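pinging the channel bc i need a second pair of eyes. not urgent but kinda urgent?? the chain im working w is below, pasted from the shared doc
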Amino acid sequence: MDSSTHSFPKILVTGGAGFIGSHTVVSLIEAGFEPVIVDNFDNSEPSVLEGLRTILGREVTCYTVDCNDEAAMDEIFRKEALHGVIHFAAYKAVGESVEKPLKYYRNNLGSLWTLLGLMHQHGVAHLVFSSSCTVYGQPEQLPVTELTPRLPAESPYGNTKAMGEDIIRDSVRAKMPVKAISLRYFNPVGAHPSAVIGELPRGVPSNLVPFLTQAAAGLRDKLTVFGDDYNTPDGSCIRDFIHVMDLADAHVQALRLLDQQETSSFYDIFNVGTGQGVSVLELINTFEEATGVKLNYIIGPRRPGDVEQIYANVDKANTVLGWEAKRSLSESLSDAWRWQQKLQAK
């Protein structure tokens, strides 16, 4: 590695070859941090590293290691003089978590437990945790703020995010010398504007936008909208869709905020969304307008476990974190479509 990079604060990025992780690696380097990726490639592709090299014009250090492997992780902590950790690595398929809860609890909570122990042992103070708006369940009031009560999770996946937050909060309360921020993501979409990296779902996508772009590209017969009889203006579910590069930038701001904390123990939570609720049918219309591509979609029955509507109040992120979403939904969907076309051409 280029010795001139040694003066930059090193940030361990677990799951750094994944969708959000890889885009955050780009933002970190642009902001003057030195990311160190840890990924077992269980749900990501090594080709992402080539994409990062193309965008950044340089290699990024990457260890092919499982975050639950304490001995291997200890070796990384010993070798790299780490300044902080961004913890993305987790299983995230809601449906699978219902079928295989123990797999999710062991992996998602075990990896966090391992990381916190090693951070304490090696004197690494800063942690940004990848949480989710799933912790709010189906909220009684909208938009949700960070003070909105968490409701029982709809799935073991969602429960691992709520429990992960609790583990960090309790560690800080116990005066463990860690400064941590949980970012509650809303719905990340889009891709890097270069179309060199983006979302790489395996098999049938569980997220709406990759399914939508695959349908637009003719890889899927049609897109099914699950329900048009919800209590929303057009009957379809409402979500808060945020461009993945805006989400990546929020992690950089979280690290900067942690750097400013003078106490040895600190914990805070931020919603990371646009603050705008967009229905599934509105999203389809926006995609068609942004790309000029007509979508073949049908209305299907409601899907079990779907929240009717959720979107963020982002005042706290704007004021305390000094961050706001800058990219429009149209831009997000155009970037996602360019990425899909790039995948087709490979």
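so The domain at 8-192+241-275+312-325 is CATH 3.40.50.720 (Rossmann fold). and Confidence is low (pLDDT under 50) at residues 1-5. — does that match what u expected or am i reading it wrong
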